[in-house]
Amino acid sequence: MTTREIFDSMEYGPAPESDAEARDWIATRGPDFGHFINGAFTDAGQGFAAKNPATGEEIARLTQGSAHDVEVAVAAAAKAFPKWSKLPGHARAKYLYALARLLQKHARLFAVLETLDNGKPIRESRDIDVPLAQRHFYYHAGLAQLMDSEMPGHAPLGVCGQIIPWNFPLLMLAWKIAPALAAGNTVVLKPAEYTSLTALLFADICREAGLPKGVVNIVTGDGATGESLVTHPDVAKIAFTGSTAVGRRIREATAGSGKSLTLELGGKSPYIVFDDADIDSAIEGLVDAIWFNQGQVCCAGSRLLVQEGIAEDFHARLKARMDKLRVGDPLDKCIDVGALVDPVQHQAITRMVGANTEGEVYRAQVAMPEQGCFYPPTLITGLSPAAPLMQDEIFGPVLVSTTFRTPSEAVELANNTRYGLAATVWSENLNLALDIAPKLAAGVVWVNATNLFDAAAPFGGVRESGFGREGGWEGLSAYLKPKAKLTPRKPIEPVPAPDTVEAPGLDRTAKMYVGGKQARPDSGYSRPVWSKRGQLLGHVGLGNRKDIRNAVEAARGAAGWSRTTGHLRAQILYYIAENLSARADEFAARLRALTATSAARADAEVDASIARLFTYAAWADKFDGGVKSVPIRGVAMAMREPVGIIGALAPEEAPLLGAVSLIAPAIAMGNRVVLVPSSPYPLAATDLYQVLDTSDVPGGVVNIVTGDPADLAPALAGHLEVDALWNFSASDQAMIDAASAGNLKRVWAPEGNPDWLGGDGEGRAFLEAATEVKTIWVPYGE
Amino acid sequence: MTEAQTATEASVRTAPSDQLPQLHLPRNAGTGLDLDWVARVQANTSAIERRAATLPGRRSVKKAYQAAWLARAVTLIDLTTLAGDDTPGRVRRLCAKARQPVRADILDALGLPALTTGAVCVYHEMVPTAVEALEGTGIPVAAVSTGFPAGLSPYHLRVKEIEESVKAGAKEIDIVISRRHVLTGNWQALYDEMAEFRAACGEAHVKAILATGELGTLRNVARASLVCMMAGADFIKTSTGKESVNATLPVTLTMIRAIRAYEAATGFKVGYKPAGGISKAKDALVYLSMIKEELGDRWLRPDLFRFGASSLLGDIERQLEHHVTGQYSASYRHPMG
Lengths: 782, 337
What we know:
The complex is a heterodimer. Chain A is of the alpha/beta class. Chain A is built from 26 helices and 32 strands. Chain B is an alpha/beta fold. Chain B has 15 helices and eight strands. Chain B has helices at 3-13, 15-18, 35-40, 45-58, 63-75, 88-99, 104-110, 127-133, 155-167, 179-183, 187-201, 218-230, 249-266, 281-294, 312-325; strands at 77-80, 119-122, 141-144, 172-176, 205-209, 235-237, 271-273, 307-309. Chain B has an eight-stranded parallel beta sheet with strand order 7-6-5-4-3-2-1-8. Chain B starts with a helix and ends in a 12-residue tail after the last helix. Chains A and B meet through helix 1, helix 6 and helix 11 of A and helix 4, helix 5 and helix 14 of B.
């Protein structure tokens, strides 16, 4: 075109970013790549092609990691761990700082290579992925520096197996490696098979940073390689980002292994627009929500909920905005939407959208490249919540939309999902926005913005979007464990029936406690509880899965407890302590009779139970969140929210104190509890419900189901409305872990039990398990 | 000379007439004052700033495209002098620059001869000089008016000033609004003032200067934009160039979104003029891409878009010479205005 013609047409024209340097790097280091193990690249082996999704061209070849490769990498990481973990924080900080600097120095190379390999627009890799990755290493250099003084009493986990997705290859690597290294762990990381090149470039700069051999190992390969890593016995932790389906498989594969686990999974994040929003800005936000990275973003605002009165206008303006998107060569600096990562992804999206029979489909009226893996920005309006596309993650540039009438209906629709990763709220009314944000089932909420990320702000999900946080001190703690003295859990057999029965004077029947009422077991069966001296202490109901069902239903009904103030919960915990104290002698006598312990020990357990209630009454209004120092004008508030309904399997030992040690932190933080008490000594806990009854604890907040944990634990672990499961009993952990995969509930089961009378029996670890961190971003400015 | 060249030249020669405002479009007739609409307007500052901050990274024009865009920018400049020491000689010099804004050899190399700027913008006293200097070129003279820049002279004199400038030959009148009406939320007063200024302009086109740097918030900017359009402004303009903050991208985004909303509601296309602080060719490209993205290509014409700028042209001239020669240019190689 002549200048004159352009002068008339005012078109943008091509603005290509050169890929020469990236191709040079591939040619020099590859083009056949091996793994990076123990500080060196291995010889390339059998494997697969790395392709440029914009063209389909093969740009390099990668090695399929075998079980043996994983073995060698884990061994290298294990060998490096003792020395690395013992380095002073400052020494690790220097390495992380060097990595940050090197990422910065090679910023354009990383960006171009990422775009070449993944298909995302160069604008995004250059302005978002790479700068955020740098920031992550800088931030974690700081955490490493401060860890020794700020996180005393914590130790790294060991070798961390890390498996990352293809949508943000370098950024997810940074999110995984930086905190692991800062905390003193060593890692074996498997990048996604579609996108391994920037991980290999990162391996290159690890050498430039002088990182000790074996601290970072990169093994390329597909799901089979990942499985070798997940099941490797010497791996202490698995950190996974990817699909919910694979996350669930990892949960099952690691069941009972004792591996620490964090999962950052899928989402169907709501994007709520109220009628008082700045509509043009909300529409622009959608561009960053669903057309960012071709919609291949776990926290993509993919489910538009718009207030009915403005919906027509909103959709019309949105369509006009969509028509301005530019789809094409990801290396062009003037492109908004690049290529999907692989034809497989294209087919999956096409299939899902093709199967939809509801609503109206609008495709952006834009020029599409003639070849390559491109999908047009798409909007589907008028869907009902029942439509599969409103429920299922599409993971592509497809936005689905429905309307709501009131704020509470917006919340209901937003939360009508199995996922809970992120949410966006647009309103110019601060009262409304700050009322809605805490009500959304999501780990991250953006108010009048979307897809804001920073190393200082915890990121992660609730429900089936996974668990664990990345970023901030909270993210670091996912790579640490408390240095507590723990004893492995061992079953205690109930006292057998004596030859001669000593019957009590007057029959006392311990019932279950469900919804604030005493309840007989559904089964109609009870078992006697004997003292060591052969005295019949009472009967206890044999609960079954229906009793668990009823208890969980009661707990659900007590959702109002989660909205009470910390002050109120403290008052009630103090009141429980007061009433327990009034009956201290009776409880001590019960403990002596049940466990044949000494009077002094029984008194000590009751006293400790009262003190523990005080501890959590104290914490109820003090386990604060924080305001994170993120680089925007605004605040990112990390709020501590209750997990929801916690199933708690109490320890067999310390039948009163053990139960109190679980109930108190859970309810102090606003959770509702279904407790399965000590199976050999259940009566200490059933006596407790009388105390709860007289202490203003609302019905359903604490529910007690007695019976055989072998029956009750699977029902509780498998229940899809139970959000977390704490196991301090000797129940089969592998069964619990596997059953919990159904709704990916948070399982908390330390390696062993603490001395309940001591300091390890209470404190922050319990509070952290009882809360989820929700990060609420509120940019401001008028 | 080949036929093709002749044809090109002929079409370029007609270009100045393109630059007469509102030649092809109906003028904004205004509407009644819709206070409900004004009250509904929202402008989320941080979101608008994010859009403005990321746009330069999202849009890029290179090589021949960049040269063509910069040439387009030249045609959109209201070449301006608004200084107390303006003299007829100074204004004639500026008008000469408006007629030949870029060295002829550079324009020839670009295949774009006969470019002119969009207008020349002066104070009332300089209008006759400018009109005379531009006679026959088709380049309109714009006069700042209504007690520019503060707009606090007696109201009847402000109206009279418009009439005088129109009588003196100004085809465009850049009025300043009473900021106090915005700051006190007296939309009716703003509407009435604007409507009367528009009436006083007669056939001359009126640009409403909002002095956005003095309006306090983007929400006020959005509301003032709407009210001025409702009262019949042909253009809305950011600044006098005399405020401490002049044209910015967030303000631009706010104002052009108001223009878009107004067009959607009424069908009238209203022009936009950022003024003050745009001095680099690169900035001009960002502004043009923002207009293209948010309003569309139709606005990239002098009847709907102007840069109020004095030093921008110099930077564009150097960039254009760089495009033609491949070498970085020097400012003294380009005739001053």
